[in-house]
Amino acid sequence: MEIVLVMLNTFQEYILHAIECLHKFNNHNIVVITDCILITNYDKTNVKVIAIEGFMPSYRELHKTLQNSYRNGFWQLALFRFQTLLTYMRHHSKESIVHIENDILVYKDLDELNLQNHNKILLTMDSKTRCIPGIMYIPSSQVLEECLKHFKDNLNDMENWGLCYNERPDLVDTFPIFPTDNSSSELTSLTKNFDKFNCIFDAAAIGQYLGGVDPRNRRGDTSGFVNETCLINYSNYNIIWKPDPKYNALVPHLLVGANIIPIVNLHVHSKNLTKFIKYNFVESWNKFEMEVYDMFFHKQSNKTSHETLANVYGTLIPGFNKENHHDNNIFFTHINYYTIKEALRQLIMYNNNLNYFNFVETGCSAHGTKSTLLWDKFVNFYDGSVVSVDLNKHSVDEANASTSDKTDVIHSNSLDYLPKINNMIDFLYLDSYDVDFLNPSPSAEHHLAEFNKIKHLLHKNSIILIDDTPLTPEWLDDGKNCPIYTTLKGQFNPNMAGKGSLVNQELEKMGATKILHQYQTLWRL
Q: What is the pLDDT confidence band of residue 67, given thresholds at 50, 70 and 90?
């Protein structure tokens, strides 16, 4: 089944994510119709790109009128695309196509729907009179042409297709947006074809509920938005993500009573499509590790002031001196490289039901480990939010200036601010009160007080990572080369070794699992 997208006059990057998702679910027969000057934007997409100027001469005249219109001609182009599709089908002798809007994610091989068995246009109605034409099946150019004859110039695309649906039932039918519901004539109309597909389609309201609305319409986080026109209120139902082993990806489903209903597509009105392209754990983690983590922390062939942890043929040795070793298999990383990586991997591996991750950090960092910056990169890759609190105004300002709007760094005493947090915590990082390793009790007591303020917000599989709590004196940053190593070696108490010593004991009482202990301590509830 050929799938046709139309993006005219401007290029918006989110269309690339829509294409990525189509390919992921084995939809490879993809055509993009766009302006000649925009074609190069699709060079790496493995789709067929067609310049509209080559078959639609009337576009040149329309284009001249768009520059000073609302959003570069949004409403005009929303209607014009259907004339474009008609001309394209005629010009290229196309029997049938699927048309999707550019902010649609498809989670199914559309050939499996056997759409060619239908002789009517199929679209998504969300009320008695309104269609949101985000996904459409068009059986022939003749049917499309007959529908376009009913379009009125004073109506937008949603209203015109709603009109066609009501006036020409011989030409237009619906994709179901909910399991069959005969409680009213309106709901029967929107859901009547469920038995033909055994899955539902999103007109817009599911995507708006999950991801919010276009930020150009309303600023801030609008996830949880309930579309006031749609006859189905999806906030009354649970939406879950189930793995599809065939495609190594997660697919959205709607829970209706005891039934789990696959959702074919999401209309991502917020345009944040990457939030809802959910690969399986291994694939998503490998992508993050390669594109983000290993670009953030560096591996060096020689020890530096920041990279002091040596990997010597797989054995980790803090502060290893390489002077007498000329071996490319020995490299150096940050002392926290492995614990932080494992912490984030555990977060994804044991919380793959989440599509939003809440980080809480005490003691921000825009230098050194730069933990705040890394959490910010993580939530921008997967989605989520970061709250960090610190007493140092300069550090707070620096961290806020270096992170996105998904991260909020608060200038406050952590013990005063932490009780104000209400959201469940998926990842807790404790790294505030500076530690004196020769007298770690004050710092350990402070971190225990922090932990007690928010431990009720942790859940099963929450990740807790605590900095500056070496397993042994050898695990000091730079190991035996650390200036205090000899003194600490003579008095080291493994039960009072650093910031996390008392929190470690509390986590043991709570039945948490210790995952890794090096310079940092890593736990999972």
A: low
Predicted confidence (pLDDT) per residue in 214-246, tens digit: 888 787 888 899 999 999 999 999 888 887 878
Paired with 318 in beta bridges are 309
| Mean pLDDT, the chain, integer | 91
Pick the CATH number of 281-297+334-524 from 1.20.1640.10, 2.40.30.170, 3.40.605.10, 3.40.50.150: 3.40.50.150
Do you know the residue count of the chain?
A: 525
pLDDT digits (tens, 9 = 90+) for 164-217: 999 999 999 999 999 999 999 999 999 999 999 999 999 999 999 999 988 887
Classify residue 253 by its DSSP letter.
Answer: E
- C-alpha pair distances (Å), 460 with each of 341, 420, 424, 463, 510: 20, 22, 11, 9, 11
| Strand ranges across the sheet with 259-262 | 238-244, 249-256, 259-262
Q: Report helix, strand or coil for 98.
A: strand
Which of the 8 DSSP states describes residue 115?
Answer: G
Please tell me the pTM assigned to this model. 0.60
Q: Do domains 3-276 and 281-297+334-524 have the same CATH topology?
A: no
Contact 28, 46 (CB under 8 A): yes
- Ordered by start, the domain boundaries in the chain are 3-276, 281-297+334-524
For residue 48, what are the β-bridge partners? Answer: 31
Distance between CA atoms of residues 498 and 447, nearest Å: 10
The hierarchical CATH code for the domain 3-276 is 3.90.550
Contact assessment for residue 466 and residue 521, using Cβ atoms and an 8 Å cutoff: yes
